[in-house]
Amino acid sequence: MNVPLSSTKLKMNYVWPTNRLDTNAAFQTATQIMRRVGMDIDRLNRDCVLDISVVWPEGEHGKHFVPDYWVHWKKSKETVAVLEFLAPTMTVGSLNVNDPAYNLRQSVDIPHLRELLMSNITSKTMLQSLGLSDTNSIGSSTISTNN
Is-above-0.85 flag for pTM? Predict the structure, then answer.
């Protein structure tokens, strides 16, 4: 899931003083988002080292930041998972899980996959033939963390 978050728009609308930086709240939000999308967040947190960063429009030692949080789960210096979200709007900009062991969701079974891939149909037509829709299009994705 990748949604481009315009850095210019972020800087104009959400430039906060550093006293509002809250990596604990960012961690809690990231945990909720990852759980909601079916990732094994307990295992990620147990197995990985966590790194949380934000956008610093004035440089790393500036007086302001953009609450565009980047949460990385790393194991042996390799990124296992990364989540980017804009805290004020709860907009997910990027979500990647590079190790399928942390994905609790069921795999998608596509009958006749080889034939579909070898055919000359467009990806949109292929998805329609499988009864699916294109969900990886550019747009905004907001995840509610309320249960």
Answer: no
